[in-house]
């Protein structure tokens, strides 16, 4: 019998699972039910869309539709009938499954603020989560001069940067004293605030919002310190919460997210959950990398490619990369922990690095600004590989000691054995002997030794040595 | 200023001089050979590719002409002692013919296989393909170019409808504003090419190199991306992702000249730079700088070489860079484009004229009925007598001596005992054959296993044509005839063809000179080339309009060149691509892991490559004194941090162990390699053979083995 797999959700996790299943072949029937009306898109690129750099079509992802996968967009699942092994959609369809995968994602948190009704958000107040949200923000931004972002986490800062890139004056309101407090230390957060200020994003820190007033003309955000900020729109970025409504209604075990085991199975073995809606080992991450790793495990298990596949969470790397901002944060770099600490600060250029090393392994890092070793640091952390003996290379760049060897200050200082011409293996000593045996011009030395006849890049060095020999000889003559 | 026409061979003079090209790599540097009092010297020659430059290999190339190791008589294995013993040509040929006949009588025509090389002239590659298909009637022919160019060839064919290494002259490199080299190390593999890179940077251009090692080439770059081996494809997809988000994609070009972009756009949407950074280790900022340099340049060129191609996903990796080039609108734009740096001397021509398992001359497909009809007519045989496609090189070698596999093999211009992946296994396969015949100038490691070894002429002793990395057809010119007892490959093939005829012509002589056998088989390269021109006419690689005289008059002729009076083709794709509808094709490609990833038992990545002073399997260059002094032995390059953890000092012997075998060589410590990766050059056989370690996983499209990455551990030896 063909196995029927039904995936609820066509977001980053659900669409990925469908592709992974398709890639593994087999004759199972896969149905994807997406509540959003459009094809799968890359949520990570929404801030780029917000910045006006790409069109909607550019954020579309490869999807498995039309290749044996039944994709239904605009189909919201309203209930799971676990006994009957079928799901119901809002347009009355019933779809049977042998295995059901929940990839329902998460919903934005609407903070409890006087004047803000989660059920009926004012027109100029928009969360930043979906493509539809993005469209609304773009519509508002087109006629806006000033924007506010409530929440100084990763997503809020990306939205702020995107809006600033459109030329808006942007303010970020954050209740705690430093930005991205889950990833950054106070020094790093302060430098990030400085970087943002240079990009036209003002930050209002350590100040909770106390109230909101919004009408057709604008929004006013009241702050705990008595100030009121006004703007043409307000973007809410106060975190997300796993969307567990469907699972909870079906009686599945739910804590913060839908509880899953290492195989991503819920309390019903015919139902899995992946991505933002799932809670594995007490954690629901809200990030794409673990969501895709989970999709892969489910695909391996369901396709039989590796029935023993298990999800092993890997340490998370947070990356904020927008024009003018380069931030990577991972693990726990906080001061005072065990092991060594490396820091580098260059306030003038907005560069900051703090790395924590324990037992020859990186246990945490914050890298802000121009850190040439960022790729190496991320790989060492991600793979748990030993750090270099020369720690400076983690701060100052992967190429330390590997650059083009500086030409010796004077040919006199070069050892005779030093190779001048790599292509023809000609040493300084060979050039000197050639001179001594009568060659008196660069061309003559080149013809006799073949130095400089390959790639040609040592030609200047050969000429320098000939000049030096000529001078040395003339000095001897003068004496 | 060049002198191709003026310095043609001047026989009969003393000193005797010949304008020819270097015997080694695909750059085919122009050189002048002078013979005086029996001694041959190499002199520089102005030619548009090398502009007078030569590396040490070129300067010393003539040393092998009179080398004491040179084979000057056939060798036949003595059944009693098991040793190779000198024999006459007629004894050797008789042994071959009876062996081939016995194998084919007992096991069918496909039980004989032919293995060629990318160093053979066009004439020889063509003659070898015809010999296999007509004289032997076997479908089994392939060549070592499968280990070299096949991934780029397949990617080029599916994107552009043609596979020509560079679709523009080398000189265009010097004028590029941005030049991206991916897995290419010309400073060691073809040094005179670096002159163009120097010129490029002197004009203010940017050179960006992608290589897991800080090679001599990478050290000259403005920007060096140092990815984990096996992650180039992800880097390419991320570069295109950035080009999309920054608006550098040439939408008009994509709309007018290409198909299939939407699927690629959606694939690369999933390759945001931070994802590629985590996988490859290349910082996002460097990816952005690279994309910017390519996307905003007036003239930009992307080149790949073996580092990107020798993978089980080599075709897809090259395709990812081709996609990037197409999205930026580079191919066909003056001074811009995508190209592949061909490796072997005639790697380009060698893959165009029928020594590839699935091809007939002119880059025609052997399963195309029209191509079969055309070529069969030139060959004077009924089309239905031509065999169908054979199998790619590694699959062919791995089937030798196995039930249902070939039982006899003829090898021309190749040394698979050193150069094949998982070489110990291939060595066993060769030993299992009923008959192994090797034609070579020296007793290579493969020849040492043969039942019959035939002494072959060298490059300075034969005429013919080579097609260099630019698709430029060049003349190889003989300085002097082969020494007594030595024959050209063409003479060997002509003689074998005559002897294999069902009823041998009674007029056949046993010792044919270069020229014609008594029954009409020609060993004259000029006549073979004339036939090649007819066979290639109308094909993708059309040589019909190329004559030796035309080559002499113009520093080479670029194919396609369909008519003698018409133009040749230095630059392709200006108006259309040679696809049925004239448009180039995008193909969506996804990163996938290497066939063998690191594990706790084999925690390091192993990669292979070349050193400047050696060439390919080293059969020739290891015997040249100056080159042996410059690069005497194999080595294992590893990072000082890794060496410290292993307790290994510089120069100390180490073993590199994979699931397939091991190599032993001294450690060479270098901070220029990633600490998670070790490198060894592949020019040596015996205990230091790098290919004892390599993986025989192959690309599903090209058959290219995964030479460039496998999992190993390193131990003190």
UniProtKB/TrEMBL annotation, chain A:
Gene3D superfamilies tied to this protein: 3.30.390.30, BFD-like [2Fe-2S]-binding domain, FAD/NAD(P)-binding domain
Co-factor(s): FAD; [4Fe-4S] cluster; siroheme
Domain (BFD-like [2Fe-2S]-binding) ranges: 420-467
Domain NADH-rubredoxin oxidoreductase C-terminal: 317-371
Residues covered by the FAD/NAD(P)-binding domain: 4-295
Keyword field: FAD, Flavoprotein, Heme, Iron, Iron-sulfur, Metal-binding, Oxidoreductase
Keyword Magnesium carried by entry: no
GO molecular function ontology, one term from the record: oxidoreductase activity
Family according to the record: Belongs to the nitrite and sulfite reductase 4Fe-4S domain family.
PANTHER family registered for this protein in UniProt: NITRITE REDUCTASE (NADH) LARGE SUBUNIT
Protein name: Assimilatory nitrate reductase (NADH) beta subunit
Lineage, highest ranks first: Bacteria, Bacillati, Actinomycetota, Actinomycetes, Micromonosporales
TrEMBL record, chain B:
Biased composition regions of type Acidic residues, renumbered to the chain: 512-522
Start and end residues of each stretch annotated as Disordered: 498-526
Ranges of compositional bias, category Basic and acidic residues: 502-511
Record key words, sorted: 4Fe-4S, Iron, Iron-sulfur, Metal-binding
SUPFAM superfamilies attached to this UniProt entry: ADC-like (SSF50692), Formate dehydrogenase/DMSO reductase, domains 1-3 (SSF53706)
Domain of life: Bacteria
Single GO term (MF): metal ion binding
Any GO CC annotation of this UniProt entry: membrane
GO biological process: respiratory electron transport chain
CDD domains listed in its UniProt record: MopB_CT_Fdh-Nap-like
One Pfam family cited in the UniProt record for this chain: Molybdop_Fe4S4
Domain 4Fe-4S Mo/W bis-MGD-type: residue ranges: 15-67
Protein name, as recorded: Assimilatory nitrate reductase catalytic subunit
